[in-house]
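--- STAGE predict ---
source: upstream dedup step, 1 unique chain passed
mode: sequence only
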Amino acid sequence: MLRRTIAATAVGNMMEWFDFGIFSYMAVTLGEVFFPTASGPVQLLSAFATFAAAFVVRPLGGFFFGPLGDRIGRKRVLATTMIMMGIGTFCIGLVPAYHTIGIWAPALLLAARLVQGFSTGGEYGSAMTFIAEHVPDRRRGYMASWLEFGTLGGIVLGASLVTALTAMLSHRDMVAWGWRIPFLVAAPLGLAGVYLRLKLAETPAYEGLGPRTARETRLGAEFRHIFVDQRRPLLVCIGVSLAWNVTSYMLPSYMPSYLSAEVGIRTTTALMIVVAVLVMLMVLITFVGRLSDRVGRKPVLMTGCLLLVVGSVPAFLLIRQGTVRCVFLGCLLVGLALLCFEGAGPATLPALFPTDVRAGALSVAFNIGVSLFGGTTPLVTQALVNATDNLLVPGFYLAGAGLIGALAVLFSPETAGDPLLGSAPAVSSPREAELIRCRTGG
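--- STAGE serialize ---
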């Protein structure tokens, strides 16, 4: 049952991030479709601004769905967010172009994007909480890393589909109708994701809370508990999320457009390079999760932060050379830093908060970090590149995020192997349970 739960959660997450990620791969094309009257750089900035707009409402989604998951259960929230994401993505594929309905085209695109953002605000914190509360304490790093395997799988699936369409269709056909295909695929994928999530059982940790009093289920009481009683872990979570998400949105979301628009790499080649790096991360991610179970979460996360601080500018120096080999090595260097966050993060962040407010606190903190810094990464870095004409700006931006992340990791507790706050120990066998009883005298 545990294997089925992990697989279904990871597959559902894969479909969610396929839906959310394809927008960034289509940024250049969407700029031509929805902002044809603007110049090339302004088109790209306009597309990235629409991409970033979803992150304005992500905290609202986190504020709504996170506490809701603490009140009605994690499973129902995950099914709801899946439905909303599928609807928002499918609607993008149906929006008429600017030449057909004028200014209403980007307005409708923005509306659909906001639905996506609201959905995602409740998705990821709830998914991390759900999988962390299902798995044994001693293997939480390894098993929770499968969630990020699903995330990377969705991003790779979206990037691969866009790459194939770009290679098969002419630029004219891609702008005319080809760009719609990835968004329309969201409908059947979304239905499959909802089916899988409805088959899951609620987490043992949540069921162990028992009936909650009317006072405990009040929204105001939960927010007071989150922002007052949990303020230190909240700040730690925001700091780690900042470094994690700036790196995450820099590589898969911004890099393809950066390589094609600024470095001069063909769009198809740029997408293939990013996909190759992401596939390598998929192969390695569960090993990093297992490593975090053995050596601890903090050493793995700190390694990722230090790689950002030390390696980001050299990575973009390599990328600036413009050869396929140098670009690949530069992207891989950024990817290795991301790998540390992806491997250890899903087990680290849920363990910062107690069970009764875990989904709410995690959703709020994670989405604040994503919205203020992660999701705006493509827009801010592209604007800085245009303003300074310096192709190393993304490297400096990543290094700054690494410094903030290192400070947050320094103040975070080590949670590897420990039970989740407010929950009994979770074990994988009767023998492990007996060892815990002997060690604790329980």
